[in-house]
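Colleagues,

For the teaching module next term, I've prepared a clean inverse folding example: a structure given as tokens, and then the sequence designed for it. I'd like students to try predicting residues themselves before seeing the answer, so please don't circulate the second half yet.
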């Protein structure tokens, strides 16, 4: 759900008039190119390891004012590429061109890639899947981000079963209409 959330947030921001760049930095299991309907190559890995210029990897999407840099070729060393000086320079350059940069990363706990990216981000949104992400894993991810002094903007809970939502509405006495804002 993290990739879909990143794409939706980027598209929503672009629809409000902001120029947005979304980066697929999940160099292990890329999906953003599929969601946004662009080619996976060239992309982030080609820029960082292959020396391509930003103009060669930035792709326009069907959403006006929303551009994407997909992953590119799956590299053998994702964390090294994402923590490279070239990545920092690229982000700095893109901050001058775009109102917002959204970065889709791998999950926080299994690999260091997300931690590397979190240290240079203005903010982090933690995405968890109901019924799949345990409280322990979510707490560990939160502690890991806090230890890096990452600015945590909030969390998204994906995949909530509609029956659970109906039970919560009955319990709290709120009508479905009141919750559908």
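(Answer key — instructors only)
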């Amino acid at each position: 759900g993290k990739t879909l959330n990143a794409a939706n947030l980027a598209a929503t921001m672009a629809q409000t008039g902001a120029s947005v760049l979304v980066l697929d930095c999940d160099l292990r299991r890329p999906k953003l190119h599929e969601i946004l309907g662009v080619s996976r190559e060239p992309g982030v890995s080609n820029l960082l390891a292959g020396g391509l210029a930003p103009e060669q990897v930035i792709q326009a999407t069907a959403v006006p004012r929303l551009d994407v840099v997909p992953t590119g070729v799956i590299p053998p060393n994702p964390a090294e590429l994402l923590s490279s000086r070239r990545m920092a320079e690229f982000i700095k350059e893109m901050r001058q061109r775009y109102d917002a940069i959204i970065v889709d990363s791998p999950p926080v706990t299994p690999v260091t890639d997300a931690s590397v990216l979190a240290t240079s981000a203005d903010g982090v949104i933690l995405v968890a899947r109901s019924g799949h992400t345990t409280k322990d894993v979510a707490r560990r991810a939160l502690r890991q981000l806090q230890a890096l002094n990452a600015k945590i903007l909030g969390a998204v809970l994906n995949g909530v079963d509609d029956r659970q939502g109906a039970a919560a509405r009955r319990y709290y006495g709120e009508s479905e209409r009141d919750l559908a804002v």
